[in-house]
Amino acid sequence: MENMKTPSLNPRGRGRFSPGIRLKMFGFLLPLAFLLVLSVAWTVTEITGSALRKDLLQRGAAISRVVTLSSGYLLLANDQLGLDRLVSETRESVPDIAFVAIRDTTNKVVAHDRIGERGKPFEPSARMTPLGTFADTHADEVVRTGRTLIEFNTPIHFAGKLVGTATLALTTDSLAAARRSIHRSITVAASVILGVACFGALFLASFVTTRVKRLHEGVLSLGKGEPFRPIPAASSDELGDLTRNFNRMAEELLAQKAGLQAQARQLEEAYLSMIRVIAASLDARDAYTLGHSNRVAKLSCELGRRLGMNEENLIDLERAAIFHDLGKIQTPDDVLLKEEPLSRAEEEQMRSHPMDGTGILWMAPFLHKYIPVVRAHHEWYNGEGYPDGKKGDEIPHHAQIIALADAFDAMTTDRPYRQALGTEEALDEILRFRGTQFSPELADEFAKMIRDLPSTDMAKLKSMAL
Ligand SMILES: [Fe+2]
């Protein structure tokens, strides 16, 4: 449980490129703003254009009616000078008048601001589009000599009698100029609005995604098991609620995880204690091996410390040394305690204890890491050991250390079939087997270590029982 894994979280969460929320929001909001501005600009242009056109038509119709009011009497009186002056003054009074003509009831032009037209029949335009009627004035869009004009035809009455028709033509230049000016203004306004919308979309996207990003980083940090710091949630909107709920959830999750880890550690300690008791009980089956596992563990750790192992490595070495002969629990007493030489079958039974030990350790997953060491503690450096015949560096380093401590303790304790060897005799024996049973470097270091140990430590070690 200590090594409880949290599913790893891919920081990106996607294998190939995928736009983030900020880009998606920006990509959504900007075209939306663009469409909105475009539709508003189009609507404003249409409304303004329509208003300008209507104003032009009303203005043209009014001028045309004014001309008819003055021209009725002049026509009847056949006052050519008055008619010429009327059309000329009218033409000059408004800059966008293309021409002014007065014709009689036979359609002959009797007055025109261009003198050359006088006396000619009035030619209607081939291309004529009716635009509407204002009182008795008809407005049409016409094309004359390549120019688009708006013609206003108003009948001239005098004393209730039709005496002619006044025709006034306005150019559409002022309308086009006004439209261009409006277009320019709308384009500038739309550009400014779009720029503001662009910044607004960016700000909104950043405002939302910054908080989402903080949440995302919090989830990643939680997933990696890093120390959790609550994510600031100042706002009272949905994202603020989400952040506060995430903080609460993370704290509860971490508290539950800590609880579970504590329980797992307690369970592990309980299991280890049980194994220690079993190992000690096993040693106690034979008065000669009482305290053997503990002494092997102490000597192994002493050597490990001299080799510069860290604390975690030393704890693993100590536990493996405690467990190394655990498999002997399955060896019958008549074999384990036999004082006479063992038969071949009994020898086989005795040699099966490393494998039996791995079977016991296999039952608890957190003890699996000790299996290779326990299995290999009777392997020889030259490959002549058991159960696998591994040699050299194939043998786990901890197993090579335990093998030295195991052999030294076995030789320096009394056995039913021989007296204990002295320290120097045991070391000579170990050094005699350097390169065959033991790693040469480790055997040399072990011998140095034993010789460096104060005599009080050795005495304490030998007196160690359980
Ligand atoms: Fe053993």
According to CATH, what is the topology of the largest domain? Hypothetical protein af1432
**What would the average pLDDT be, to the nearest integer?**
86
Which structural class do you get from the secondary structure elements? alpha+beta
Radius of gyration: 55 Å
Strand order of the biggest β-sheet: 2-1-6-5-4-3
CATH class of the largest domain: Mainly Alpha
Estimated share of beta-strand residues: 5-15%
Count of extended strands: 6
Helix content bin? 55-70%
Low-confidence stretches: 1-15
> Kindly, what is the distance between the CA atoms of the first and last residues, rounded to a whole number of angstroms?
29 Å
Shape: rod-shaped
Number of helices: 14
CATH architecture of the largest domain: Orthogonal Bundle
